[in-house]
Structure formats: structure tokens, C-alpha cells
């Protein structure tokens, strides 16, 4: 592999982490891929390097290996899935097996909204179940919604162009069809996909680690799915900051009668009035109430550092 001038001079090259496994990082640099270890300083400062991180690497004497010596500033990051510098999050939800869980969907979209990450909702397995009602609910809440059958490729057309630019992280339940959709869009990837457990009706965690793939001009992170049960605990933010994370609530938030309205029971609450009028869905508001309840005892001093290098989710 030819060394760039920067590498020859010993200043290192900038690259992007495409995979992280067992304490090793795969870093794509202009001169090729390097398998790297992180510098000791990252451990000392509890800095967790994740896929999508832009880093400076120093090649070691062994060809193809290097050391990550610097982490460049992040645009944004998520802890689950652990990905940094996202341009969008694609939330993959299957019509059935596993069946959709609106609280999980609303938790994820709220976390993304808090971090100003654009969300694209993709409903899969439209051949097995009807997603019309859910697609409508989320479309009205302002999300971009797509519905696909990844086995035939039906509905996948517009997604190919969208995911061919910027960095997209896929997330969703195990078995929802993330890897299948990626294969349908970009057949060269040849990702492993798994059967649904007949007994439990859910996936078997076929994808085991986060990995970044080139797709057109873009980058896509396939991630291991989660199961709904290990997800229903929202991380650390103040309950008072939750309402704007439900993006369709925003136009109403300064119209409530009382300052500091929690939008749960108050008289003259504009959010509750909008729910009553059918302009905000009951389902989204119920998720808001459930998340609010989880957050209400968290105090300002218990919050993590703003950088998501700690935990923002269980
Ligand atoms: N009928 C039908 N089956 C699908 C569709 N998309 C995926 N599947 C099936 O669903 C199962 C799980 O798909 P995967 O792509 O492995 O799911 P995943 O989200 O990557 O799962 P993890 O890697 O475990 O997180 C496989 O048997 C797929 O063939 C679809 O649109 N229609
Ligand atoms: Mg997968
Ligand atoms: Zn209110």
C-alpha cells in the first residue's frame, strides 16, 4: 500500500472507523484500510470510539496495522446503535414478526430529535401485513415514511438514492429486516440475514456488530437489532426537555396557558387540546407520557456530559 505524504512524514492520516470489534478498529484511510488499536489515552479518558468516528491514525511497522492517535470532533453520535457523524437514522420496522411497538419507535425518534438527527421510517414485510395505519400515523407526525417488501424489492426505489449520500445508520428490532433491505438496495453487500424464531416470533440477532459499508457516494451502517424488552428504558435527559423531541408538538409548546406546562394534565394545555382535536395522535402522546414518567425524577446534576461518550441509554 502506498503511503501518503502525511503518513511518510509521521503525522498520521485521517480516516473513518468502519468496524469496531474486540478492541480493534478497522479504519478506512485514503491509503487503504488499517486495523488499529486505540491509543491508551482513550481508555484513560473513557472515550468510546465508535463506527463513523473520524480519527487520525499512525501506521505501525506491521503493514496494514495502525494506532488511532486522535479523535476528530463529532457532528453527533448515538449510543444505541453506537454510531457517530450520522446524516440520518433509518428506523426499520416490520409489519409483523416482530410486530411494531410504537413506544420503542417513539423513544428512538425522540433521541434522534434531541440530537437533531433526521429520521427516515421504513416499514418492511408489507407482503405479510398491512402498515397503512402506522404509516399514516407517522406521516401525519411529520416523518418521511417508506414501505417496502425487501424480498421482491417493491417500494425500495426511492430509498436507494436517499441512502447513496451521507452516512445513514440503520436501526430496529432484531428480525425487522435491516440487512435484508440493505441487500435489496445494494446487492453487492451480501449481508447475512436470519430466520425469525418460530416460537418467539422475533429475530435471532443475526447481525453481530456495527459495520459501515460504502453505498454509492454514501456510507451505511448495518447494526445488530435490539429486542423491545431491553429498550424500554429511556436515558438521561430532563423531563422538561422531552416535549420538543416530539417534533409535531413544537408548534403548540409556547401556546399553553402556564409556563412550565408538562403537557400531561394541565388546564389550558395546547398540546392536550391538539390531541383532543386529533391534530396530535393519541398514540404519540401516550408515548410522551410514558417517557415523561421515566424521566421525571432525573435532576440536572445527574445528566451526562453532553457528548455521548457515556451512556444515554441502558
Ligand atoms: N416476507 C418478508 N420477509 C422479510 C422481509 N424483509 C426481511 N424478511 C425476512 O425477515 C428475516 C429477518 O431479516 P434480517 O434482514 O436478518 O433482519 P435484521 O433486522 O437484519 O435482524 P438482526 O440482524 O438480527 O438485527 C429473514 O428471514 C428475512 O428473509 C420482507 O420484506 N418480507
Ligand atoms: Mg441484520
Ligand atoms: Zn401544555
Word description of this protein:
The chain has 314 residues and is α/β, with parallel strands linked by helices. The chain has 3 domains: 10-71, OB fold (Dihydrolipoamide Acetyltransferase, E2P) (Beta Barrel), CATH 2.40.50.140; 77-230, 3-Layer(aba) Sandwich (Rossmann fold); 239-302, Ribonucleotide Reductase Protein R1, domain 1 (Orthogonal Bundle), CATH 1.10.40.50. Helices cover 21% and strands 23% of the residues. The chain is built from 8 helices and 13 strands. A 6-stranded mixed β-sheet has the order 10-9-8-11-13-12, with helices on both faces. Strands 1-2-3-5-4 form a 5-stranded mixed barrel. A hairpin with a 2-residue loop joins strand 2 (24-29) and strand 3. The longest helix is centred in the last third of the chain and has 14 residues, at 282-295. 37% of the residues are buried. The protein binds guanosine-5'-triphosphate (GTP), magnesium ion (MG) and zinc ion. Magnesium ion binds at residues 178-179, 206-207, 222.
Fill in the keyword field for this structure.
Ribonucleotide Reductase Protein R1, domain 1, OB fold (Dihydrolipoamide Acetyltransferase, E2P), 8 helices, binds zinc ion, binds magnesium ion, 13 strands, 314 residues, alpha/beta, disordered C terminus
Gist of the model:
By secondary structure, the protein is an alpha/beta fold. It has helices at 5-8, 40-44, 102-114, 132-140, 157-163, 178-185, 270-276, 282-295, and strands at 13-21, 24-29, 32-38, 54-59, 65-71, 77-78, 83-84, 88-94, 118-124, 144-147, 167-171, 211-215, 218-222. The chain has 8 helices and 13 strands.
Amino acid at each position: 500500500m502506498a503511503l501518503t505524504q502525511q503518513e511518510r512524514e509521521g503525522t498520521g492520516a485521517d480516516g473513518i472507523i468502519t468496524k469496531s470489534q474486540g478492541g480493534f478498529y478497522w479504519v478506512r484511510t485514503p491509503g487503504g484500510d488499517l486495523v488499529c488499536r486505540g491509543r491508551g489515552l482513550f481508555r484513560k479518558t473513557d472515550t468510546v470510539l465508535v463506527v463513523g468516528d473520524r480519527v487520525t491514525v499512525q501506521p505501525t511497522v506491521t503493514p496494514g496495522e495502525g494506532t488511532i492517535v486522535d479523535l476528530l470532533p463529532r457532528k453527533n453520535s448515538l449510543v444505541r446503535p453506537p454510531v457517530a457523524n450520522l446524516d440520518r437514522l433509518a428506523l426499520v420496522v416490520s409489519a409483523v414478526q416482530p410486530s411494531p411497538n410504537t413506544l420503542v419507535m417513539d423513544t428512538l425518534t425522540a433521541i434522534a430529535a434531541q440530537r437533531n438527527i433526521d429520521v427516515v421510517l421504513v416499514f418492511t414485510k408489507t407482503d405479510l401485513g398491512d402498515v397503512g395505519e402506522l404509516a399514516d400515523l407517522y406521516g401525519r407526525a411529520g416523518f418521511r415514511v417508506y414501505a417496502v417488501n425487501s424480498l421482491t424489492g417493491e417500494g425500495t426505489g426511492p430509498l436507494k438514492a436517499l441512502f447513496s449520500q451521507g452516512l445513514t445508520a440503520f436501526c430496529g428490532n432484531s428480525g425487522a429486516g435491516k440487512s435484508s433491505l440493505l441487500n435489496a438496495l445494494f446487492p453487492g453487500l451480501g449481508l447475512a440475514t436470519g430466520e425469525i424464531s418460530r416460537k418467539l416470533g422475533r429475530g435471532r440477532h443475526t447481525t453481530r456488530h456495527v459495520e459501515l459499508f460504502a453505498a454509492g457516494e454514501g456510507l451505511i451502517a448495518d447494526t445488530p437489532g435490539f429486542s423491545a424488552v431491553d429498550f424500554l428504558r429511556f436515558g438521561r435527559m430532563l423531563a422538561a426537555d422531552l416535549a420538543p423531541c416530539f417534533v409535531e408538538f413544537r408548534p403548540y409548546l409556547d401556546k399553553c396557558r402556564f409556563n412550565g406546562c408538562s403537557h400531561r394534565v394541565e388546564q389550558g394545555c395546547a398540546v392536550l387540546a391538539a390531541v383532543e382535536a386529533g391534530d396530535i395522535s393519541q398514540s404519540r402522546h401516550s408515548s410522551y407520557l410514558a417517557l415523561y414518567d421515566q424521566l421525571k425524577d432525573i435532576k440536572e446534576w445527574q445528566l451526562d456530559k453532553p457528548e455521548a461518550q457515556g451512556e444515554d441509554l441502558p
